[in-house]
Every structure is written in structure tokens, then in C-alpha cells.
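Minutes, structural biology subgroup

Action item carried over from last meeting: produce the C-alpha cell record for TonB-dependent receptor (Novosphingobium aureum). EB confirmed the sequence was re-checked against the source entry. Recorded below for completeness.
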Amino acid sequence: MATSVSMPALAAAQDVAAPVSSAAGAGQSEPGIRVDDDDPVEVIGNEIVVTAPAFRGIVDVPQQPIMTFEEEDIAAYGASSIAELIEAISPQTGSGRGRGSGRPVMLVNGQRITSWREMRSIPPEAIARMEILPEEVALRFGYSADLRVINLILKDNFAAVTGAGEYNRPTRGGYDNYELEGGIFKIAGPRRYNFSTKLTETSMLTEDERDIRREDDEYPTVAGDPDPTRYRSLASRSSELEMTATMTQGVGEGGLDGQVTVNGGYTRSVTHSLSGLDTFTLTDQGGNSEIRTYDDPLASRVQTDTFEASLGYNTQFGDWQFSATGDGSYTETNTRNDRSRGADIYGDLQDAAAAGEFDIAGALPVLPSAGIDQARNRVFAGTSMATLAGTPFRMPGGDASLTIKAGYDYSRTMSEDTRSTVGDVTLSRGDVSGGLNLALPLTSRDEDFLGAIGDLSLNLSGGLNELSDFGTLANWTAGLTWSPTDTLSFQGSYIVEEAAPTLAQLGAPQIVSYNVSVYDFVNQTTALVDVTSGGNPNLRKETRHDIKLSANWQLPILDRSNLLVEFFKNRSSDVTQSFPMLTPAIEAAFPDRVERDAYGNLVALDQRAVTYDRIASSSIRWGFNVGGRIGPDPRAAREAAASSGSARAPGTPAAQENGAARSGGASGGPSGGFDPARMEKMRAALCAPVQPGQQPDLSSLPAPMLERLKGEDGQIDPAKLERAKQRFCAADGAAPGSAGPGGPPPGFDPARFAKLRETLCTEGREIDPATLPERMRERLVGADGKVDPVRLAQAKERICAAPASGGQAASGEAGQEKASGNRQRSGGGMPFGRGGPPGGRWNLSLYHTWRFTDEVRIAPGSEVLDQLSGDAIASGGVPRHAIEAEGGFFYDGYGLRMKADWEAPSRVNGTGLPGSSDLRFGSTFKIDLRFFADLGRNESLVRKVPFLEGARLSLTVDNVLDQRQKVTDDAGEIPIAYQRAYREPQGRVIGLDFRKLF
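Output recorded by EB:
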């Protein structure tokens, strides 16, 4: 692979102006200068071409990427943030292993990040390249192999101020949601910073707004009582404010000694919900019964404040990469629940009725006002991890890779609850961890070692966790990766892990929630019961044994397509799970968790976590990704033009136009492929004055280059050293063919450039298109044959800022931004300037999951439950088949995105006794659509309304078909607890989103 980098900043101006005036300008390349045939650095004309097996920013692993996204592909999604982009590509980033939860493992420029906060609000326009990698790659960065890995390679220079607003409302009405967001983001070489704020507001959705019906009560309510569905919420009223700030700074000259990242954030969320009216049943001495209702609803308010901070450090020790991250948070949650007055006085009133002190027909005594239960939970959490990754030795098949990790996590939770009978609860846990991952290349085509087999590598990983409150947990992994060709790879992994229940599952305070709808399979009714939640100190350690087999084939069609097949077989013992759906089998296994009255009616349920004896499953997940270009390929056009000497500097390979394939597509700097500061450090080492007969101190040179300077005896070869010095030390400190300090590149024609500056930069002068160089005329003249004033202003900004001598346009950070960051800034921050790339992109990704087995044994010796056959423990059964899809197209600034999910129907078996009924859960098919227009690409519109520069307008329709799962019993009736509005309260939601980059 190769990347080429123009050394002077003025190259950007030449790109806009005219081709260089030299013999090479006719399309003939100057001969390159190398130390030897294997040298990774070659100077060609005014370009430095770097060829190497890997660059900073790229993850060099034997596993092939599942998907790779270039700038054009990312722009085709029209996403407003990294978070939105990752959500859009969830079918590709989802893991079929079923162990991990949450978002994928995130890397930035091939390095670990401190936390998700560091990059969640980064504008997608700042990404040069994005790779999705298999789960096994996570082992190399200190994570477990249960989530896929996303590596974001950022541009070296980018700046944007963003503002966005979004409004959403269901077509069925009932509630509103809106979001306001703003941020500042900038990258300047090794430095980047990001500040963002987001406010989200959502109103409440109640049962009466979705026509929820209630179970017919045994006894009628008092006439005139209010409708209780108005006081039970399906979706809470909520408000959330997020603020984050991140700063990354290079350490040392040019950021060569590493980088430091500091991140902080604050989040406040408040939710309000209603759990119905306060009711209780009275029975007097005569046996008359009646449900009495208070007019006040039972309300709940939860406020959560979270303070977060993190610190990260990355540096290089020779060939070893060191990374250390620490993330800490303090979360305080305050909950206020209205206490049921009926529950407080029920016993007293029943005693009074039994004593004949009142009857139903008479007046009730004066009742006390309702009280409030309060709970406060405070959590301190800190995580830290240090990794050291490098190549400890070389094998015939290549370099071995070793990652050593060590970390310490700490969490402490303190709970106070007026409903708890055990008083205040304090729980803490310390987790000391350590482990290593070793990757061994067994065969290699590049190294010509058993190359007929292909590339075969072995991966071994192991680790220990010592939990202060639970004991020792162990894990180990063994895997093979085989690539018989460049387009086909196979993987096999065997994973053994031990896991502990969370602190909350073990010791969270017990809380009782009133009037919760629970379906009772025994009585085939929906009961409003008191539900207990909290911790269970009797949970045990879980042991997992997983097998994964996969194949990835890069299809020989289109320009980016592949087929992925993955097989998973999981087996776990002593599994901690949330309390399952209350089927007869579950009630029989946990009889102490269920409370019924004398008539067999369900009145209370303890839903704290439980331990299952064994869970086993197997499945296959396969899918394909296809995509292509709409319209002409700009790369092909540029390469065709280059052959006539009009598109780019002589000797520049096509790889530069393609983002340098594996180089990150950047123009240098620590986060891209070629690093000018690092090249200067190499030059200083080679060109330092020494006494005759002595050698310069070469210890600071990169190890690959140092090896190439050695002869067969392992010592520095004087001839190779001399050639390197000639190449690096010529031209007053500049490499041959490159610019001297502050000077123009070879082939630069000062007179021609001065004439161009005079034409463009003279105030009040009318521009005659015929006087412009041909290439520049094509860029500046619109379809009407006249000079576009906006494009002309951009060209003036670039060319008029450069000194007539052709040196640096400006000094310091501002000059760097003008010279090499201007393309990112043009067009309001759009990745391809105001007009965008010619043509467009389309893609389709489709993944199918087929579950073969899913079995649960609750206790040793108990019956094995087959969830696929209806012995379900989850609320909704387990479907055998599921399909995920996403796709769309983007052309000339307009795009359409689609995301779809389908699940097959499933069932839950009843007791089999007379009167019992099975439940059938219907299939679901949810489609989300998003239409967007990059208004800033519409040049005529921007001329009329300049504010629309860098603006995007989007229309979203979630759940286009208004799908809500249908649940029926054997008679075809829908149980109260499974009404469609309970399954999907919102229904179809339409949203409008406006975003602008300033």
C-alpha cells in the first residue's frame, strides 16, 4: 500500500491553479530515490511516497474487515453524529454471539479511547475512513471478544461548529419529543477538541391516549369515579440535558511522543410517570364488597445526575504501543413514589367493617393523606486499563503480536429507601484484572513461508479477574484465522469465561411498585399486583463455553461487497437472569416468589434476579453487504486526467486519491499515514554532524527503517546509510524533490503563480474566464458559462493568502488550517466541498439469524425447557428467525435511508390443564425511513439563501407500517396485559430534523 503527501502547504493552491511547469508536468514521473528496494520511503518529484505494511490509524490484524467505509460512503448516510451513524449501520455492527450488550468497541485512529463520550458527538464529516472488524480483534485492545470493533480514522485537519434541532410526533398523537443540540469540533494535526450540548424533552403518553381497556373487576367501582387509564402512563414524561467536553493534545515536538486525552461530562435526566389511582376493596360485616378509589393518582419522579471524567494517554516505545485510560463517574438517583393510602389503612378499615362500625352504604371515616416513599442511590464507579502491544519476536510467517493488559475497576453504591426494612445499604467492589493476547502467524504468502496454504494465524488469550466481593474469575480464548486468498477468510474461536452478577443484582435495595399489570397463566387473567425489585445475595458465578465459526468472502462483483457467515454455539451454567415471565413452569421452580390470596388470585410477585442451572443455544447468522456508485467515478476521472498531466502532481499514485487504502486517507500527521514531524525527526538523526569515520546516532529511527539500513552482518551498511543521507539531507534540510523550509516545491513556476494571483486578487477586477488556466476555469465556471462567485471566493481565500514566493501561506495553526484544512471547511464542512462528489452511492446490507436450539434448565434434575417450542421464559417467546436490513442511496446531495427488522412469530405454552391457553406472539416487521437533503450542495439555493450553506434537512418516519405486535390466546382474544399499545406504545412516529455546520 502507498500514500503520497505533498510537503508544502502551497500544494493545495496549485491544485486549484494550474499544473506544475516541468517536464514531469506532461505526465512523466521523475525517478524515485530509495535507500534500497525494500525502503518504505521514496521521493518522487515533489511527492514523498510511503509504502509500509501498516500506518498509525490502521488496525493491522489478520482478520478481514467486515465492512470498510470511505468518505463518500459515510456521506451517503446523512448522519448528524457518530452515534447516529453507528445506529444506522447496526446490522453490520451487531454481534451474533449474544454475549455483549450495548454499542461496539470503539477505536479512534487505531487507539483505545477513554469513553464513549469522547467521540459520540463528532461530526461524521470529520471521518476519513471507518472499519468494522470482527469480535476477536477486541482482544488486542484489552476487551473481551463479545462485541465487534469500529475503528474511526479522523482527518488531520477539520473544523466545524454544528447546530441541530429535531421534532418528533406519533401519527396517533398523544405526546411530543424534541431535541436541541450544538457543538464545536476541531482537529489540527495531533490536537483535537470537542464541546457539545444536547437537550431532549418528551411529554407523557397515558393509557387513555391509546384506548387501553381494563380487566373487568370482580366488583364494580363507585359510580362517578374517574377513568383510571388517564392516570397510568405508557411512556414517561422525560427531560435530559447532556454536556461534554474533550481535548486531545499531542505530547512532544509534533506530537511524536504520544497524546493525552481529557474528557468530562454532565448529564441530568428527570422522568415522571403515573401508576394509576389509589384503590382498595372494602368488605363490610354483611359481606358487601366494593372497590374504593382515591382521586389522586400514584405518581413517581426519578431524577438522575451524573458527573463523569476520563483521562487517556497513548505513546510509542520503539515498536511497542502503550495505552492507558481511566474513566470515573458519580451518579446520584433520587426517586419519589406516592405511597398507596389504601395499602396503609386497608387493615384498619377492614377491622372497622368487621366490628360493624360502618357499612358500605354509610360514610367512610376520614382517611389520612397519602405519604411519599423516597429512595436515594449514589454510585461511584471507576475503570482503568493499561495495555502494551507490540511484536516480541519474529517467526518464519511474520511478526508475532503480543498485547499485555492490566487494570483496576472500583464501584461503590450507597442506597437509602424509606420502603426498605433493612435500612441503608452500602455495596462496594474492587476488580483487579490482568491478561495477555498472543497472535502467532503460522504461514504467510507475503513472507513466502508455506504460502501455498495461505495466511494462517493462531490467537491465544487468557486473563484473571479478582473481585473483592466475589472471588476469582478466569477466562481464556483460542482461535485460528485462515485466509487462503486475499478475498476469502475463515475464523474459528473457542471462548471460556467466568462472570459474576452485578452489584445491583446482588445487593440493590428492595422496592415495591404498585398496580403493575402481570399476566397470570394459571387463571388466564391480567392482574394488577405489587411487584418487588432489588438485589438477590444468593446469586452464583456463571461459566460460559462458546464456539464461533465464521467465513468472510469479498464478492467479485461491484466495488464493495461481501458475504459473511457465522455459526455460534453457546453453553452456560449458573446463569444470572432477570426474573422471567410467570409461566406455570417458572412458578413451580420459584414458588416463594409468588403470592396468591385464598381464592388463588395473584396479588404479589418478587421479580428479583434468579439463577438458572444451564442455558444452551446454537444459531447461524449470515448476510451480505453490496454497494456501488451512482454516476461517474471521480477517482477514475482523476486518474484518467492524471495520465495527461492535468489532475495531480506528477508521480502521485492513485492510492492518494483513494484515501491511500490503508493509510487513513489523511495528508499526514500523527493520526494519518505520513507524519511530516516524524520525517523531520528522522532527518535530524541522519543529518546530524559527526566526526569523520563516525556514524550518527540512529537509535531514534523507526525500527523498520533501521533494519533496512543494516547489512547481512546485522550492522549498519555504510553504502545504505550514505544513500539515505543523500536523500534526507539535501536541499538545506529538505529531502530531494521536496520543498525547502518555507519554500516552493520543485517545478513551481513563480511567474505563472504571480500572474494568477494578480488576476484573482486585484480588488474590483472582473474575472475573464478565458484568462484562467483550463483546470481552474472548469472549477470556477458554472453551467451558465459564468464565474460562480461563491467558488471564486473560495479560490481567492486559498490563493491570495499564499505569499507570492510560494512559501507557507501562514504560520502556526491558522496557516495550517488555511493551507490544508480548507477543503474540509469549504461547503460548510461537507466532506467534498460545496458541490459534493459527482455521482452518488447506494448500498444494501441484509442479515438473517436462524436459531437452531435454545434450551433452559432451571434447576438440576428439572425438565429442560425448549424456548423455540414454546417453553419460553421471556416476555414474548423466542422467534426462530430474525432478519435485519439497512440500505439506501445518495445522489447529488439527496438521500434516502431505510432500516428494517423482522422477527418470526413465536408462542408460549400454557399449563395444558383444562381452561389453560397458549399465547401466540405474532411476527413483527418494522421499517424506518429517512429522507434528507444537503441543502448546502444546492448552489443556486445557497446563492439565494446564504444561511443554508452547510445545512441539511431530514424527514424521518419510524415504524412506517405502524406495526404493533399482536398477541392472542387459543380463542383468538388479546389478553389485557398484551394489548398492542403495551407492546408498542408510540406506533408510527414522524420527525423533522434540521442541522447546520457553520
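Discussion: The CA atoms of residues 246 and 263 lie 4 Å apart.
Next step: EB to file the record with the rest of the batch.
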